[in-house]
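sanity check this record:

:::
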Amino acid sequence: MHRLAQRGLAIASTIALLAAAAGCSGDDGSGPGGASVPGVTDTEVVVGTHMPLTGPASAGYSKIAPATKAYFDYVNANGGVHGRKITYKIMDDGYNPANTQQVVRQLVLQDKVFAILNGLGTPTHTGVLDFLKSNRVPDLFVASGSRSWDQPDKYPGTFGFNPDYTVEGKILANYAKRDLAGQKVCFLGQDDDFGRDSLAGVEKVLGAGAVAVKQTYVTSNTSVAPQIGAFKAAGCQVVVLATVPGFTALSVGTAARLGFKPQWLVSNVGADHPTLAKQLGAAAPLLEGMVGTNYLPMQNDTANPWIQLFTKVNKEHNGDAPFDGNTVYGMSVGYLFVQTLLAAGKNLTREKVLEAVQKGGFQGPGLVPLRFSEKDHSGYGGQRLSRVSGGVQTYFGTPRLSNRDVLSAVCRNQPTRAPRPSYRHTG
């Protein structure tokens, strides 16, 4: 209860700080020497994103950006940040890399956004890294766990959000090694860095020879029958999935049609139970026993102050949309961006916002710490396992951290709660 109380105080104090900061306006959005800052005026900061509102990754993911916008609308209703309201331009790329390049160019060159926030997808966002770098656009909190975002020397303006996929692969593999010892493990992953990084983590723990069958899929082909058939033929007992939600549901449903019932171990990317249950419909009981990973509060943890806050925001600013892990994710991103703006100060520039992220010290809904520093742009540093039981997804075990080489448990006194914010402002 002590931790919950502190979280509640943190949320309340953040709201109070936002209201106070609203009285600190007067900045004209100019940078050093009076230079204009793209996307910034004395009353507004404009940021943009690319999201799969349609297409093969839209199941669940189409809810993320609206949830982030709802959190911004909540903040705007309380006065904004340093007198500025946040405008969020959401562009649909259909999870198609060619579309991503087009919409991101529009956001940067035509809409003149201040930053790109939470652009979603490994194959999609990879194609805009160099463009954003050359245009000096902050590339904040990418919605993917690819290692590509954590290259401070090559891409100093890019920062991740999701835990590293290789870290996640190791966490799932350690569970298989410890709790499913002796069972034949197989792997299905997306045919890009998402799948490859996840498999690398699994093999670091189990060994390359211990993964009996390795299969990939592409999002343009909505049949995974050959891959699932290969698992069944090989006698796979455990299948690790590095899949987006639509392909998690497709894999589970296909396996059922083929009479194949493995233990599923699923990446956080595709393990949100409400999203999968909606995809499967009457076949949702097939998810029983699924083990997944996550690093944010469960949407069904109504005693958690963050869930209480996000539920309130969802009702008031998101049309009371169905509340799931994607909603929690989107609002968590919104919260982190607001904290970043507060830390960057009243005289907002792109350089100051990057300095604020690198300085680190942010805490929020996450079950594990954020790792931002000058040398680490990776985002959240670990995850916790979950299991579906009785149609309900809940956590079990201890959150796990990783430096990519060694997994460790989060100590019980590890700061996983949000402290009282300490960002300074002047009135």
The chain has 14 helices and 13 strands. The first helix runs from residue 2 to 22.
